[in-house]
Amino acid sequence: MKRPNRYRGKRRTEVASEEQLAFVGEKDARKNYRKRSGSQTVRALSVNKVNINKKDGKTIRATVKNVAGNDADPNYVRRNIVTKGAILETDAGMVRVTSRPGMHGVVSGVPVDE
Question: How much is the pTM?
Fold first, then answer.
């Protein structure tokens, strides 16, 4: 693409999507975003429950208390932001997030073996 002139702003197709951070909150909240050609994606705004996939094939649902660790950014731990790879403290133990809440709209994880 050629470099835009000074007077030309960005077109709708050139604008990047906004960064969507999922916080630990009182309830699960999601937002639908329209993509190109009418398709939609769901993003998580706040997280209260997490789906825990155990090794025996069973899945349980637990309540999130707070974020215990995050290798992506230490500030995410202070601000209780949930991303992929974050360690969550739940009522069922520690869980590592395997889904992308800002892209998938759900929070799934596996137990952390201690």
Answer: 0.81
